[in-house]
Amino acid sequence: MTPARDPLLEVGPRLAICALLQGAKWADFATVRDTVGAGDSVISKHTRTLEDAGYLEVRKGAVGRRARTWFRLTDAGREALTAHLAWLTELGAFGL
């Protein structure tokens, strides 16, 4: 894995969403929203962008009569996150 800057992960809460999901099989919308500390519309917008990039898989379903949405990081999302975090670590090593 080569450290690489990923501009997609530098906007809004996308890095936080990916970091949260790296340790989860699936996380529901409310958990992501509450953990990241952003509103519904912000989470919706940024998870859609991550999904469009192939970083996030979205599953929709229901629990009882209530609609639910779950997210998980794809392999491409894990690779992008790992490379971006390595790039950030490298920056810190150079004092940037």
Written description of the protein model:
It is a single chain. With 96 residues, the chain is an alpha+beta fold. It has a single domain (7-87), classed as Arc Repressor Mutant, subunit A, CATH 1.10.10.10. It has 4 helices and 3 strands. It has helices spanning 14-21, 29-36, 40-52, 75-93; strands at 27-28, 56-63, 66-73. Strands 1-3-2 form a 3-stranded antiparallel sheet. β2 and β3 (66-73) form a beta hairpin. The two termini are 21 Å apart. The mean pLDDT is 95.
Q: What descriptive keywords fit this protein?
A:
96 residues; alpha+beta; Arc Repressor Mutant, subunit A; three-stranded antiparallel beta sheet; 4 helices; 19% strand; elongated
Write the SSE topology.
Layout (H helix, E strand, L loop, with lengths): L13 H8 L5 E2 H8 L3 H13 L3 E8 L2 E8 L1 H19 L3
Antiparallel strand pairs: 1-3, 2-3
Protein name: Transcriptional regulator
InterPro entries: WH-like_DNA-bd_sf, WH_DNA-bd_dom, WH_DNA-bd_sf
Pfam family, one: HTH_34
